[in-house]
User: What shape does this take?
Amino acid sequence: MRQEVKHFSDLDALSQAALEILADALNEQGQTAQNHTFALALSGGSTPKTLFKLMGLPQNSSRLELRDLHYFWADERCVGPTEPQSNYKLAIDLFLNKVLPPPGNLHRIPGELPPKEAAHAYRNDLRGFFHHNASQDTVADFNLIFLGLGGDGHTASLFPGSPALDETKAWVDVATAPASSPVPGRVTLTYPVINNAHTVVFLVSGMDKKPVLEEILAGT
Ligand code: 6PG
Assistant: This one.
């Protein structure tokens, strides 16, 4: 596994670089006219907003043929798809409502359901897409996952101390954000799925992330 850390002077430069990572992944891992199965998972939070806006620009959307990708979410808050806290809504508002993929290419986590039901429904969607049935001991293989990093070290909705961190088999789990979060109820991809993706990109911005990022990069 190859790991690389890149530094940028500002969020615009970081977001442009993230767009080019997506472009490279599409070139390398292939979308073909016959095979539109590139699976991209998105996160919420504030950092990816600039990237999403870039993805919504017509020149980028047509150059990368973003309409043909399959969109998934690394995590979701337990709210409906039209609520302001919804990670799905964030992506819809910032670029998907311009790119307009076919509805079948939007694999949202149904945050309006009770968390366990939402996790179950998402798991079934993933299994259908990745052609794995429940009895097989295999793991979803995303082409690319964009993740963020919280000041407490969380990524997706894998928060410190959460039982979801210990998951070794299930692809999706329920999780709880700290009580200070506006929406503590979460559904998240697990480590097995994140670690099985072809490419994982952590978009990290803000000085509040520096201490935990240093710890992570030091391996502590
Ligand atoms: C979410 C996330 C979460 C996010 C980090 C970083 O739904 O909140 O997916 O893991 O990526 O909290 O968020 P910021 O980019 O806002 O710092």
Remarks:
- The two ends are 19 Å apart (CA to CA).
- The mean pLDDT is 94.
